Amino acid sequence: MTAVGEIDMSNTDTLARAIETTQGPLVIDLTEVEYLDSAGLSVLFRYIDRIQLIATPLLAPVLEVSGLADLTTVHGPGGA
Length: 80
Description:
Strand content: 25-35%
Strand order of the largest sheet: 1-2-3-4
Largest sheet: 4 strands, parallel
Distance between the termini: 18 Å
Number of helices: 4
Oligomer: single chain
Order of helices and strands: EHEHEHHE
Number of strands: 4
Radius of gyration: 11 Å
């Protein structure tokens, strides 16, 4: 699954619905996400048991500080 633009309280319901309706383990590509707020992080935490993330160096610190990176696999762009 690929997310684009901003993930904030205005669209977290859409993100949650997309994750809920996708079966099995899920890799979410965040490389095109420019902004991720606490509401977006909250959705990702809700599904932590079945997601992995792909994130740019811009988002990596947010994922680390929030603790999300400690709970799931976070890949860099290109799978690194």
